[in-house]
Specification:
By secondary structure, the protein is an all-alpha fold. It has one domain: Arp2/3 complex 21 kDa subunit ARPC3 (Orthogonal Bundle), CATH 1.10.1760.
């Protein structure tokens, strides 16, 4: 991995975690929607990142958000689970149909639809795990499912907007 890619990922980490901690952690719309935009950082890590480094990076990312919310372990566990699922879904959804290879999953690498599906699945898995841990009960399962789905939809829209607005200039750099 070259130094430019490392600095780009560190910048993305700082931007998304700061946005999450300073802005999105303070948003809880209608009691159902809590966007978790920082998960996009895990979704966009380079495909050359190995499984163990991926899990450690996700663990650290979740821990950074957990420390800021005083709820230790919920974001960490959900992020680590998403990092585990990321490799499987990345192979099945994006890489399998792309002959050129992809350095970094984004709207501008491969097919827009494939990335949109991949991102939605990762965000839904994260939100389902996170909100299930928050309620820690199957009594309100459908309420938890609704919260996870609505949070996923809002986060997915914000993530697509982030990519459209901030990555538009770097479009050519993401095509491997």
């Amino acid at each position: 991995m070259n130094s430019q890619l490392i600095f780009r990922n560190i910048g993305r980490f700082l931007l998304l975690v700061l946005l999450q901690v300073l802005v999105f952690n303070n948003i809880y719309l209608g009691g159902y929607i809590n966007p978790c935009i920082y998960v996009l950082f895990i979704a966009m890590l380079p495909t050359t990142t190995g499984k163990i480094p991926m899990m450690l990076i996700a663990f650290f990312t979740g821990m950074c958000v957990d420390v800021s919310t005083n709820i230790i372990g919920f974001h960490t566990f959900a992020c680590t689970a998403v990092a585990f699922l990321r490799g499987v879904w990345l192979d099945k959804i994006i890489i399998r149909d792309n002959d050129e290879g992809i350095d970094m999953p984004s709207l501008y690498s491969g097919s827009y639809q494939q990335f949109a599906i991949y991102l939605f699945l990762l965000l839904f898995a994260f939100n389902l795990i996170y909100h299930t841990l928050l309620t820690f009960s199957f009594r309100g399962f459908f309420n938890t499912l609704l919260t996870a789905l609505l949070s996923t939809i809002v986060t997915w829209i914000l993530a697509i907007l982030y990519q459209t607005l901030l990555l538009r200039k770097a479009k050519n750099n993401y095509n491997a």
